[in-house]
Each structure stands twice: as structure tokens, then as C-alpha cells.
Amino acid sequence: MIEISAPGLHSSIQDRGRPGFYALGVPPSGALDSFAHDAANALVGNDPDAAGIEVTFLGPTMTFQVTTVIAVTGGEVNVSLDGGQRVPLWTSQLVRAGQTVTVGTMHTGARAYIAVRGGIDTPVVMGSRSTYTLSGLGGVEGRTLKAGDKLPIGTAVRKGSWLRAGVRVPEELRPDYPTEQEIRVVPGLCDYRLAAEATEKLYSTPYEVTVEANRTGYRFQGEPLTFVAREAPFGAGHDPSNVVNLGYPVGSIQVPSGTELICLLRDAVTGGGYATIGTVISADLDLMAQSKAPDRAMFRPVDVETALAERAVRARRLAKISDLALA
User: Fold this and answer.
1) In this predicted model, what pLDDT tens digit does every residue of 255-283 receive, in sequence order?
2) Contact criterion met (CB below 8 Å) for 14 and 47
3) d(Cα 19, Cα 33) in Å, to the nearest integer?
4) How many angstroms separate the CA atoms of 131 and 120, rounded?
5) β-pairing, 77-81 with 150-151?
6) Largest Cα–Cα distance of the chain, in whole Å?
7) What are the start and end residues of each CATH 2.40.100.10 domain in the chain?
8) CATH superfamily of 180-310
9) pTM
10) Handedness of CA 104, 109, 212, 210 (dihedral sign)
């Protein structure tokens, strides 16, 4: 059992998400930086689907009632044991019964991930323990953590793994979280609605993250984009950025009225009436999740083959981390 004495700013239970319910209007939720989440699980010998804690900007203080191993990955953050010993990031750490772990304020990036050997054993809702606060699903009563919460530890460990501290992810396998990032986009579904000069602006000028950046989506400010003139179809309205109705993939980009660019993330609505001009590739959604105002993004168009190749690169890096933990 883990007792939360201070919850942090926006800490929630997340796993890999709940796929299969998008058509019913339920988004997948799950860790925004899935690479960091999966790496933390690998370091402590967990199953990939085990749930951990997602930290946003400021982390929790928590006391462990059992001896176990933890790992903290993601952005740069100070982690201490009993208020003194510093806990290294991207490294498995032994925590003894009665000890307190404090996760401080993020220095780089926006999110950190805490994995505990065996995973956080909150109830499974629609195939996942992930928290979706907008509908009160998963996690601890469908909400972020609060002081006094007691988190049960599960048994979701990989076969052949054992309780082991000191496993470290080498620097070359860790992602960087710079304040200006290149974010790759597969154009579509409605990129044809953009005027030619708008498409050029989208992929050649920087866009700045605004303070409205959360698990639902990130808003960016930058050059306004214009749409091709048209006669609006019935039901679409007169705004040129509107369509009658459209499903929204995770990572899809919209530009309502051409004034503000929005990228939808894992807690977003599943469809609506805005044209989707592109979709951020899955490998770069992890990077976007670590950006914050006023970080900047340069969007670059790529094809589906590139997106799949980058997904494979990510999988190989995770496999190397898993091998380290089992060695």
C-alpha cells in the first residue's frame, strides 16, 4: 500500500489506455508520454500494461508501507527519499517499508512517470485503470490524487523478472525534451481545405504552446491559416474550418476559424465539426506531452511509412530497456 500525503498539482493513475471504445465516444486516456511510462514499467519489471502515476509539473509525496522498487522517468525533476537521499531518474530504486518518496517540481519537460513494481492496483474500468476525469472513469474514483489516498500495489510483473534496484537507462536511450521541438505530421484528413499559402505557413513557421495545454489537447498560437473558399454543405455552418461531422484521431490537428491550432490528445472528444488537417505521429505525441507554455513546435509533414518507421524505432528502444531490466 502507498499513502499519499501531498498529491502534487495534477497526479493521476494511468496505464496504456482503454482502446476499443472510441466509437462509443470514450477516448483511450492513458499516459500522454507513453514511452516514459513504458520505460518506467520496464525498469521495475512490470507488465507493459501495469498502471503507474502520471505527474504534471509538481509531483506527490507518498509513504510506502511495503518494501519495493520504483522508477521515475520523463522530464527532469528532483526526487528524494525521506527528504534527503536523491533518487536518480530513469533508474530503478529500492524503497523500504516506512520510507517516504517526494517528487518535486519539473525542471525540464512537463510530466514524469512513477512506476512501482507490481503496478497500482486500482479497479479496472472498461479494460483499463487509466483515469479519465471528464467522465469520472478509472484511477481513484475517476479523479486526480488527493491527500489521504491509499493506493494498493498489484502483482502485474513480467515472468522472469525479479526485484532489482540500480537498473539504469543509458543516456542514448533517453529522449530529450527541448523547449523547441520538431513535431512530425501526416497530412489529412481534410488538409485539402487549407489554402496553399496556409499549408506553407503551417510547415515553415513556429507555433507556441499556450497555457491551455492539458490532457484533452494542446493549443498553439502562431500564424493564422486560411481555408479555401467554398459553398458550405448543409449542416456545416458558414465557418470555412467547419465540416458536417468527422471522427477525430488521437493527435489530430484542427484550426477553428484559422486562428488557433489545436492538437487533440488522449482525453479528447472523439468527433465533431472541425476539419482535421493532419495527425501528429505517435512517436512525437510523447514529445508534445512534455512541452509547456511558451515552448515552441515546428511542424513537419511526413508520410505514413515514416510514421510507422518511427514507431518501430521507439519499440526497439523500449525492447533494449526491457532487456536491461531482465539481464
Assistant:
1) 887 788 999 999 998 887 788 999 999 99
2) no
3) 16
4) 12
5) unpaired
6) 68
7) 180-310
8) Cyclophilin-like (2.40.100.10)
9) 0.93
10) positive
